Amino acid sequence: MNWTDERVEKLKKLWSEGLSASQIAAQLGGVSRNAVIGKVHRLNLPGRAKAGGTTAAARTPKRSATAPRASNYQARVATRTVTRQQGATMLKEEVEIDTVNEIQYRPAANVVVPISRRLGLTELTERTCKWPVGDPLKDDFHFCGNESPDSSPYCTYHQRLAYQPVHERRRPAQRAAETLHH
Q1: Cβ-contact 96, 79 below 8 angstroms
Q2: 0.85 exceeded by the pTM?
Q3: Residues in Cβ contact with 66 at an 8 Å cutoff, skipping those fewer than 6 apart
C-alpha cells in the first residue's frame, strides 16, 4: 500500500479529530496500526486531539506536589528540557525545576561528645562502638571505636542516641494527634 496524497490528507483529518491509530487504520483499509503511527511520526503531526474535544491547554493546572517551605528558604529555579509522550507523539518541553543547595552538617557546639578512637571498618571488634562518624565518601570517615558494653554495637553515649524509650517516641505523635482534635 502506498501513501497517496488523498490517504495522507484523510489520515491528517482523522488524526486531528482524535481517532486512535487503530481506528484510522480500519477506516483507511489496507494499512496496519503501526503503519499509521509511523506515518504520523514522519509527518511530525502533533499529539492527537482527545475524543471529547478537550485539549491539553484547556485542562486545569495541577497543584504543586511540593510541600510548603520555610520563609527563610530560598529556592533556585532552573529550567530543564524533558521529553514526554502525548498520544503517539513525543514532545519536548521546558519545565522549571527546583535546585537544592548542599548543606554542610555542623554539629552543635554545646554538646559534649566522647573522644572517638577513629577506627576504620577493619579495626572494629565485637567490643568496639560501631557508630559511623562523617560522610562515608570522604577521607575522614571513621567509626567511634570506644568500648561497648556486652551485646551492644554502640558505646553508652551512642546507645542514648540510637535507642529511645517507646514512650519518648510516642509522646510527639500523641501531642500532634491532640492538637488535631482540639
Answers
A1: yes
A2: no
A3: 98
